[in-house]
Amino acid sequence: MKVNKEVDFHWSNYFKPTPVNLQYLVESIQAILATIAVTSFAMKNEVLSFWLLISAGILDKVARLFARAAKDYMETIKVEYPVELSDQVEVTKEIKKEGE
Question: Pairing state of beta strands 66-68 and 7-9?
């Protein structure tokens, strides 16, 4: 199993982008849990379906704590546009080392 050392797990990563491959994995697991929950609800097992849906929701929140690690780097977004032509907006993403 390949371990990606660029992925970091921390509370401060909640609002940072989640890696795409992890996001696909979590969405697939959530779809499986939702299918099992609907099936168990149809079979009159409401307790199991409740806990499956709760675990799918918790899984989504935990997955948001993973983000690409940029140690000693700060991500900034720079927006530049002419004042008279606000429709032509250019957005660039820069990653700078802290202290620069």
Answer: antiparallel
